[in-house]
Amino acid sequence: MSTDKITTRQKITAAAKNLFSTYGYGQTSIDDIITAAGVTKGAFYHYFKSKEAVCSEIIESVQGEYQNIFETLPKEANPLEKLKVLIKQILELNNSGQWVNSKLMLRLSCETQLTQTSVKQKLDAFWKWHKDQYRQLITQCRELNLTDNKLSVQQQVDFIVNTLVGSIWTKTAFDKNTDEEVIDYIIERL
Length: 190
Hints:
Radius of gyration: 18 Å
Largest sheet: none
Number of helices: 9
CATH topology: Tetracycline Repressor, domain 2
Structural class: mainly alpha
CATH architecture: Orthogonal Bundle
Number of domains: 1
Mean pLDDT: 89
CATH class: Mainly Alpha
CATH superfamily: Tetracycline Repressor, domain 2
Order of helices and strands: HHHHHHHHH
Distance between the termini: 48 Å
């Protein structure tokens, strides 16, 4: 594939990703994507047959970025330290303003018009995979008695994911808590 084709495809997906995370899937048209990417309608349809197709590719890309984070956790650290590093890294990425993945996945997950589409299936698969990553770390923590067992593994996973979701949504509006406070809050309640 030539550099021009990669660049055009990347322009389209980057523009769509930013628009979907800011305005949502339903509020973003193909024309909006084309304008933001600075490409022609023909170029868009050369790479993607629909808005749904570009969104599906973006979800796959986002999952790959999350997977990279999970895979690059320090191998020598215990599972609780890995969990702290993971949470800190996700919060820092979200605070950077350059990384819209969490906001994007949350916004897409709230879109009701996606309930019967392949995008919804990809979102569901992402969240299952995402929670499984936390589940593995929590299970390892429990096996080493690094966390309390007052909550079930599923409750601990839900607690982590829901707290991060809440932090990400409220930080965009309020920015009251530091990342360290969020990390401590999560870890202390596991």
